[in-house]
Amino acid sequence: MVRVLSISTLFPCPARPQFGIFVANQMKAVAREPAIDLTMINPIGLPPWPLSRREPYAALARTPARTEQDGLAVHHRFFRTIPRFGADSNPRRIAAAVLPEARRLHGQAPFDLVDAQFFFPDGPAAAIVARALGLPLSIKARGADIHYWGERPRARAQILAAAEQAAGMLAVSQALAADMAAMGMAADRITVHYTGLDHERFRPVERSEARAALPAIPADGPLLVTTGALIARKGQAQVIEALPRLPGARLALAGAGEDEARLRELAARLGVAERVHFLGVVRHDALAQLLAAADAMVLPSVSEGLANAWVEALACGTPLVISDSGGAREVVGDDSAGRIVARDPQAIAAAVAQLLADPPSRQAVAAHAARFSWERNAATLADHWRGLVG
Fold it and tell me: Where in the chain is the domain with CATH 3.40.50.2000?
């Protein structure tokens, strides 16, 4: 039996049931692996009073100390954070909040390994915990933790120090593994760990049937979907700017974030506001229907590791129009999977127009996602952990 303590700020809790759902799906799958005993600690950042009394922080503050998520025990611990200003120093505050619980659990039944599911801030925090407990460390990189935080000098120094301590590291794509090595991490300690997929939920269905089940979006015209937080680096603005070149097409934005007001203003200024639908955060169990209803999933991100949304869209038979970031070329093997384009409205519109004029078969698109599964993902992760302990 390998006993693993995994630390993940990116994890669902009662106040944020969709937050980090892909991490939860992975960890629930690996917890079912034979001879793996997994305990999760989910650090939750709360700002100082009186900001902590405002939403969404007030709801987060009501999170219980422990929840059970499909049989997986999750321990939630609060740490103090300063929104927008204190992020670079979050790892030490996370470690201070987590370490007492980690020591208590370790004393009851010793762990063999400390794991972090995001390179920053989780990685440096987990490194502190692993040192304190005298245990090996594993850290997973997912994209923004390398491409965004790795550009901030204080965060970068902590990332590299944690990487030096780690017995092994994971990357969600070959491209991300190469970027990690270019930062100075030991390439021989990095393993590519592709995401998983629920094939029962994400599968091709009749597009018109799926579209008819979306009452919030009129059924006329092609439908484009963009998923992810409404933040500048995800590129929703470029998709909205492409709409005037795509007469009749509608765009559904599945996500929430600080850019929403700016995006609404942009859509109004371009005269396409009636064709842009802000859906807010879409439940994961409803996302499959939305993707199946779409003619294309468009996501021109500045950077990605290997986006779960790419794989989920493909599994639904929906082709991609994505930027050449992260593992894009590892999922778009040919034109039947979609197009890789420049982050430019004209290029996005041209690629979408090609797919609308000559759409690939849904079965051909879905075939590109066949190699992804939570079972394979979990087995790879369990083998990685066993190798580090062994």
Answer: 2-196+373-389, 207-369
Positive or negative torsion for Cα 190, 191, 192, 198: negative
CA atoms within 13 A on the CB side of 230: 22
Question: pLDDT by residue (tens digit) across 294-342?
Answer: 999 999 999 999 999 999 999 999 999 999 999 999 999 999 999 999 9
Q: List the one residue out of 340, 350, 295, 343 whose CA is nearest residue 317.
A: 295
SS3 120: coil
pLDDT at 390: 78
Percent of the residues in the chain that have a pLDDT greater than 70, as a whole number:
100
3-state secondary structure 300-349: CCCCCCCCHHHHHHHHCCCCEEEECCCCHHHHCCCCCCEEEECCCHHHHH
Under the banding of pLDDT at 50, 70 and 90, the label for residue 284 is confident
Q: What is the pLDDT of residues 150-169, one digit of tens each?
A: 999 999 999 999 999 999 99
Domain 2-196+373-389, second-level architecture: 3-Layer(aba) Sandwich (3.40)
Report how far apart the first and last C-alpha atoms of the chain are (Å, whole number).
11
Distance CA 175, CA 142 (A): 11
Alpha-carbon distance of 337 to 320, in angstroms, equals: 6
DSSP string covering 230-265: S-GGG-HHHHHHHGGGSTT-EEEEEB--TTHHHHHH
Q: Are 142 and 327 in contact (CB under 8 A)?
A: no
Please tell us whether the domain made up of 207-369 is placed in CATH 3.30.70.20: no
- For residues 322 and 342, is the Cβ–Cβ distance under 8 A? no
pTM attached to this predicted model? 0.92
Give yes or no for residue 285 having a pLDDT over 90.
no
Residue 248 has a pLDDT of 95
Q: Give CA–CA dist 157/91, Å, rounded.
A: 12
